[in-house]
Write a structure and sequence with these properties.
It is a single chain. By secondary structure, this protein is an alpha/beta fold. The chain is built from eleven helices and 14 strands. It has a six-stranded parallel sheet with strand order 3-2-1-4-7-8, with helices on both faces. It starts with 5 loop residues before the first strand and ends with a helix. 43% of the residues are buried. The mean pLDDT is 95.
């Protein structure tokens, strides 16, 4: 239980609503900012405006999955007002307060560091990332089906990167009967792909493997599907880039060549916000509970 813990939420999408609900159910004192247009009210939650006074009473500050941008702006799809995280807000936090987000940009990291505030990025956790890869893969499959005139079954698919998302993506494609090739950067991933029944190749040799490809699913957040690669691909191919923005594809040249290339970050929050929210909620509650236990043991 989170009895006696004051958690402040600043903005967020539909995933955050599930996190708010879970924390309230665990008996935390929950204050939310940036949800004034939310139709469904969550029981046991107080609706506030952003202020240094509110933050001075926070034990935990929870930001959206994408944190804030490089100016401090926070996503508020459920509010008509904009939210901005400023230096004065971090200065108001108690010394024991922890800031949680999905992934932090340099602005947020710098702000927390300058005020010696503990910052935890939930998407860095293996359990969260692995569970999150499931709605990501499902969303990517929906996009592939909507943007191709052929079935996934029997299609020639390349997955670039065999991290947590890439592995789930390749396995999902295999389950639907696609021919799966995996572009990897290490001998370990090469062996893993081979064991799974996927055809592995090193990403440096990508140009030699795209002449007959139907679908490319990229998870590598650096420029890998370059103009040179695109020039060798069939015009009918579709690229779904699952890497963090700006992705790993030369979208300008893809458009020039008439190749459909789609940047698709944040799919869990789009296709399965309830599931994605519960994944985050469970991890957050566990981390806060662990922190309470550590503090209790230290007293």
């Amino acid at each position: 239980m989170l009895t006696g813990v004051h958690i402040v939420f600043l903005g967020g999408d539909a995933r955050q609503i599930e996190v708010i609900r879970k924390c309230s159910e665990m008996d935390a004192t929950v204050s939310v900012v940036g949800f004034d247009k939310l139709n469904e009210r969550v029981l046991g939650v107080s609706w506030e405006r952003l202020s240094s006074e509110l933050l001075s009473a926070a034990d935990v500050l929870v930001l959206p999955v994408v944190g804030c941008d490089d100016t401090g702006a926070i996503q508020t799809p459920y509010s008509g007002e904009s939210l901005k995280l400023l230096d004065e807000h971090l200065a108001a936090l108690p010394s024991h307060c922890t800031v949680y987000t999905g992934m932090a940009k340099p602005y947020l990291r710098s702000l927390c560091a300058s005020h010696e505030v503990r910052l935890l990025e939930l998407l860095d956790r293996d359990d969260v990332a692995i569970f999150n890869s499931i709605p990501t893969a499902e969303g990517a499959l929906v996009m592939a089906i909507q943007n191709t005139p052929f079935t996934i079954h029997g299609s020639d698919c390349i997955v670039l990167g065999l991290g947590r998302t890439g592995f789930t993506m390749a396995k999902s494609l295999q389950g639907l009967g696609a021919k799966v090739r995996a572009g990897v950067r290490s001998e370990k991933d090469f062996a893993r792909a081979e064991v799974m029944g996927w055809e592995p190749f090193l990403t440096r040799d990508l140009a030699d493997h795209v002449r007959s490809v139907d679908l490319i699913f990229n998870t590598i957040p650096t420029m890998i599907v370059t103009a040179q690669i695109l020039s060798r691909m069939p015009q009918s191919a579709v690229i779904i880039d699952l890497a963090s923005a700006p992705g790993g594809c030369d979208f300008r040249y893809a458009e020039k060549r008439g190749i459909k290339a789609l940047l698709a970050p944040g799919l869990p929050g789009i296709v399965a916000p309830k599931t994605a929210g519960m994944i985050i909620a469970n991890a957050l509650v566990q981390l806060i509970s662990d922190e309470i236990k550590i503090r209790g043991d230290g007293e």
